[in-house]
Each structure stands twice: as C-alpha cells, then as structure tokens.
Amino acid sequence: MDLFKDFYFNNQILIGKLPPRIFDELAFFVKQCRKYKDDELGFLRNHLNAGKNSYQLSIPKPLIETSFSFPYIIKLGEYYLNQVGTPVDAFYRKVRLRCNENHFDGYDFWVNFTYTGDDNPEHNHAGDLSSVIYFSNVDQIPTLFEGGISYAGKAGDIVLFPAKLLHRVEKHQHTAERITLSFNLVHLK
User: Fold this and answer.
1) In 136-156, which positions are buried (b, 16+ CB within 10 angstroms) versus exposed (e)?
2) Predicted local confidence at residue 1, as pLDDT
3) Distance separating alpha carbons of residues 63 and 6, to the nearest angstrom
4) Mean pLDDT per segment of 10 residues, for the chain of length 189 residues?
5) Domain assignments of the chain as residue spans, ordered by start
6) What's the CATH architecture for 8-187?
7) Distance, C-alpha 178 to centroid of its chain
8) What is the DSSP string of 50-88?
9) What pLDDT is attached to residue 19?
C-alpha cells in the first residue's frame, strides 16, 4: 500500500489526506480528549502553550501506543525526510514521536479546541518535524506559514513541515468549533 502517493510539497510543507482508517482513529482520540476537556477538573490537563486556544491537551499515551496512527506518523516522517534528500532507513527507526518524559503531557501529540476569539500567534515547535491535522475546520480558517504560504485544510487533511518553520492562525472570528491535532517528530541522526 502506497500511503503517501497523493501527497505533494508546497515549498517545505508536505500536504496530503489521511487514510479513512487513520482519520477514524483520530476521531476516537478527539472524543476521548473532549471527555477530559469537559470534566470539572479538565483545566488541570490544559496545556496553556504559546497559543490562545480555549483548550489544548495531549492525547493519552495508551491511546497512541495501541493505534495505527502512531506508526503511520512515524512512516510519514520517514517519507518526508527521504523526499527532501535526508535518507532514512526505516530498519534503524531514526524517526520518533517526541516525548515529554515524567510529565503528564506524555507525547508531543495533542488536540486543539478553538472557539470564537481564540488565536494562535506566530510560533514554531520543538523537535525536527511538526504537523497540523485538520479535524474540523468548517470555516476554512488557514494556517499561515512564513514565506507567504497558507493552507486551509478540510477534515482529514494533514500538513508536515520543519518544526522551526514559523506559523500562526489568526483570531477565530467564527462560531463553529475548529479542531486540529498536532504532533512533533524527532530525527535521530
């Protein structure tokens, strides 16, 4: 199975569509994270990162570790590196999902719940590669990348880019909930 045959580059940004099976797993992740968000103690799990999203939290490690999404994003990272001329031999497993050991965040794989008035100012990420997965973006709010590139993904779209690439999302002016997922990968050289 050629998982990435329809993916393409726009400058440094790899753009594609997730397989339905992977998107279904992510829908389950979002459902589970919403339970945390809606809990009276949900504020304890809120990331409070650079962005001003209403709520942002890591996907629980057991969900990630038992999923097909986990190896899929590793393979996607390997594919990206191979396409940009940094050969990666999958046998040696040199691409990893970034981890925050001894912290409740676990892996650098999280869900962003965005509502009216939220914004995500210009920032970059830790690690080597980062991603935005569009889960619910009915108002087509774009992610704006340095260099004048913007992408307003639809449900199931994914972008992968160098973690240092600055990007932002302007103030959410719409009433529809916007949900994205993001992750950071590291390349062990």
Assistant:
1) bbeeebebbbeeebebebebb
2) 62
3) 27
4) 92 97 98 95 82 82 96 96 89 89 83 89 93 93 95 97 95 89 94
5) 8-187
6) Sandwich (2.60)
7) 13
8) SSB-SEEEEPPHHHHHTSSHHHHHHHHHHHHHHHTT---
9) 97
